[in-house]
Structure formats: structure tokens, C-alpha cells
Amino acid sequence: MKDLENPILIDQTTTRSHRAYFGVFLVVGAAFGLIGPSISLLADQVSTTVASVGIVLVTYGFGYIIGTQVFARGYDRGYGNRLIGTSLLIAATCLASIPFVSTRLILALMFFLFGAAVSTSDVGCNTLIVWELKERVGPRLALMHTMFGVGAIISPLIVRGSDEIRGDSALAFWVAGAAIAIIAIIVLNHQQPTDPHLETRSDHPDISKKQILFVVMFFLAYVALEVVFVTWIYTYGTKLGLSKNEAAILTSTYWIGFMLGRFATVFLAQKSHGILAIQLGAILNVGVCVALYFRFDSVLLPCAFIYGVAAAPQFPLMFGFIGNRTSLSGKMTARIVGTAGLSSTTLPWLAGQLLERVGEWTFPVFLACTALIVLLGTKLITKSFGISEHISKSDALIN
User: Which residue of 15, 31, 226, 395 shows the fewest CB atoms closer than 10 Å?
Assistant: First the structure.
């Protein structure tokens, strides 16, 4: 009888959209994983240099920010799966159009629209899975982020296959675009979750400006730690003398480690050692950077693997840590994801400029600095938020 008096609760127990969100992260991971290995091919496509075509990283990131700050607010207004599905269809169209682009300006525009679409779906999946699963979200949130790594792991090999067959990256972008379109249709055919805290959200104060600053610090550094590595490790490998195939294998090795690290996160999210895992991961990232700096080239593959394993758990564990301490809204998720967009707008481009114009040694130094900031941000966040008081207490009141 209690459930019949609460239709919102019924919706929350009958929706199964989180399974579709796993698919979203799978195909978006595959699409994102194309960018780094295809940079040199895209440069040839628009007749410019690798350093010059790096502007697409800036426009992608800028679009990502626009998506989080403008379109993603629609989740708090009830658009839910409709907004995720529509944004994915836009992303699919952009990817399918990229092989036909012959100028750098239009290429930048396609990546801008793609970034806006991806960030909109990213905010939606991260927000709605929390709404649907509530206190059970931890392991499934980690699994959803794991699917990103599963998708990205084969992307470099798809790019190499397209390069071998056509001499460009067209097939890779068409395959990714088709996959995203299929998932978009699946999402649109799922019943969307509703906000379980809609009526009680006003009773939960927003986190303080100081806490927001610490959160921004962490995610700004973490996204750079992840995205800079995966975007430029292919180019870094070729500058060290690796063949294109060897550099593609190096990138895939990172994604193998990343995928395994995300799988481990599913179990870490069930324990009370999530913060410790973040800290140990950042320390391992620094260790890999030291090996790269001193040019221990014989351990490049193990380094890429270890870097991926160490980096993978940090985002979902910290996202879950924060989500358990605040009534997570679309607006709050947009702040977190928007920070990721700001980082991916500027820092990968900066790292690429340093790599191309200053020297290979800047790559590990840049990454080591981001890992150290992650360590500092983790310390400040845990000290500020204190001991967990799960937001599901409000759910107990409802029940």
C-alpha cells in the first residue's frame, strides 16, 4: 500500500535504463579512443601539421563545456532519456561527417558539436544512473565507466585497420557513428528514471564554494592525467622511434590496463578503501612518468599498462565519494563534468604544443604534475567532506 501511494518510487524500481547507459559509455569510449591515433591522419586529410590540427582538441573541449552548461541542465527539467538519445544522434552525425571534411575550420566545428553532444549524454548517464539505483549505484557506476575503457581499447586498432584499407581514418569514424546511432535508439526506447530527491532537494544545502574549488581542482587535474596520456602517447611513441603499428599497440596496451582498472573499481566501490585507491593510483602514475622521463624505453608497454590501471579507478571512485555526500542533481553533475571539459579543452592542447615544439621530455613532466595535483586535491576533498553520510537517508524517510 505504501508503494501505491508513491508513484515516483514505483518508477524508480521499474526502470532499467542503467543497462542502456552501459551501452552509451561503450560506444562513446570507442569514439573518444579514435581521436588520439587519428590525429596524424586528420592532419593529412586537411593538409596541415599535427600541431596545427591539435586545435580540434580545443574545440572538442569547448563544445564539451557548452554541453554541460547549457543543454545538460535539461535533466533537472525532466527530459531524461530523450535528451541523451538526441545528443547521441547528433554525435553520430558528426562522426559520420568527419571523413568528408577537407578544411581545418569545418573539422573543428564537427568536433565542437561532437563535444557538446558527448558531454550532454555524459552528464545524463552519470546523473540518471544515480537517480535510478540510489544507494546501489556504486558498483554499477564503476561498471558503466568500465565500459568506456572497453570501447576505447580497440579504437587504435580500428584506426590502423582503416589506415591500411583506405589510407585514412574514414572507416573508423563511420563504424563509431553507426554504433552510437544504434545505442541512441535503444536509449530512446527505455523508460527514463525520475529524480528521487525532487521533493527533498531544497532541504539539502549545496556544497560550499571551498568544496567546489577542491572538486574542480581534482577533476581538472585528473582529466588531464587521463586525456593527455591517451591523446599523445601514440605521437610520443612515434617520436621515440616506434612504428605506427607499435605505437597503436602502445595505445591499446594503455586501454587494456584502463579497462582492467575500471573492472577493479567495481569491487573497490563496494569497499571503504576508495580514497586510498585514488591516492595509490596517482602515486603509480608519477612512477610511470619518472620511467618515461629517464627514457627506459624497454618498459614502454608495461608503463602504458600500469598507467592505465592506476588512472582508471580515480574518476568513478571520486564521483561516487562526492555523490554519497550530496543530493546529486543534473546541475551538480554538470559542474563536475564541465570541469572535465575545461581540462580537455586546454591541457591536452598545451601538452601537445610542448611535445611538438619543446621536446619529448615535457610529456612525462606534464603528466607527473597533474598526478601530484590529484594527490593534493584528494587530500583536500576528504578533509573537507569528512565521514560519509549517505544521501539515501532521505530515501529511508520516503520508505
Answer: 395
